[in-house]
């Protein structure tokens, strides 16, 4: 719908891209002061890269997950966004291990970015490049570990319950923050929530190995706090009003607490 | 394809921000107008279940507003929507009240049963089915019943209220169960009955006080009998909560009321 209004395609699209970048930055130190400069910067970045992208592909080199300076262009065709990327070298005749390792590295980099964001904002580009592979792996591993931990006759039930809770819960939390007026891309938020489940996974592994109650409870609570903190870091960048922040954070606390409680009570 | 849709929403927002003249701002004044009316329907946004902007009007609340409404809903008084919600009820409070209640019921009931097992040192069993039970019971009662009630009043073409109001009333009325469930951790069988009965009475009175004026506005006197159905269903829900989640002391031997090491 919005693309219908676009007058000169390249100009407008770059603006949308820039806005996206700004909106989705997960940690914004002082939005009032630095937003204009960072906007300017990213504006220049995106415009330069999109100029270099399609016409001169060999000018920019980079890899997914390793270098944020990869060339990419986005354009809209009748409301559908298409994206072209060039990673710097031909991926057709590289070994399969290189392909898999690149994806795994990208998952690892995003995990690090979500759970332990470097000081001063870090690399926003990394999270714009959302994927759902990492969340899928984390969700499946969590479900498998919890179902191993559960009594024999209930393991299937636990498995399906965890899978559906993760999927439905993260969708509901995302929609909730969108409804409250937060500006966040749907799938990126799903991606971040999925990666933020990783501390809970850690807690479940610990409690699989150590069955003492006095270890499980502090570990799960600490991992719960870590998960909430990690996802809050991201959602701080969604420009919610100050008075509504709690309303967006509270469902996230509930979402992570279900799993923490499951680990504690098993 | 769906990503394309959401990306479009983002771009829309951005245009709103920069251009200062736009959809979100244009329907805000109309929303203020409809706030004074009894049935809030934002006329500017076209009705579509897939339009996220349509639902945003029902999530236009602040933290303090929601906390105040949840608190006021625990006190059974008539005129909840007109007095406490300024004529427009939100959906955030009801939905997350129900979800919190589900989680609290699951937590307290698993805690109770694991304490009982810990005391009697019997074989431990997982209580995960309780989570699915609480999800289906609470969402069915908190979302299904008000929808049904609204549908019946619509079908009989009585009562000027929207589906949102009916959902909101039911959702907020369940908020009293949250502190009560925490109190039900005290392992005294008779006390739990008293607490649940008090909670059911309070929230039932709240529901009746707020729904009866809607039904009473009908010409047909028989419609008022619907309030009996509301009360009976409410009692049933309270009984189900008691039996499903807090029945451990009544089935097994009553554990001695001791101070809890796990709390």
Question: What report would you give on this structure?
Answer:
The complex is a heterodimer of chains A (about 270) and B (about 260). Chain A is mainly α and about 270 residues long. Chain A is built from ten helices and two strands. Chain A has two domains: about 120 residues, no CATH class; about 140 residues, no CATH class. In chain A, helix 5 packs parallel to helix 8. The termini of chain A are far apart. Chain B is about 70% helix and about 0% strand. Chain B has twelve helices and no strands. The longest helix of chain B has 29 residues. Chain B is globular. Chain B starts with a helix and ends in a 12-residue tail after the last helix. Classes of the chains: A mainly alpha (about 270), B mainly alpha (about 260).
Number of helices of chain B: 12
Helix proportion of chain B = 55-70%
As for the number of domains of chain A, it is: 2
Low-confidence stretches of chain B: 1-43, 250-263
Short description:
The complex is a heterodimer of chains A (about 270) and B (about 260). Chain A is mainly alpha-helical.
Keywords:
heterodimer; A: 266 residues; mainly alpha; two-stranded antiparallel sheet; 10 helices; 65% helix; globular; disordered N terminus; B: 263 residues; 2 domains; 12 helices; 68% helix; disordered C terminus
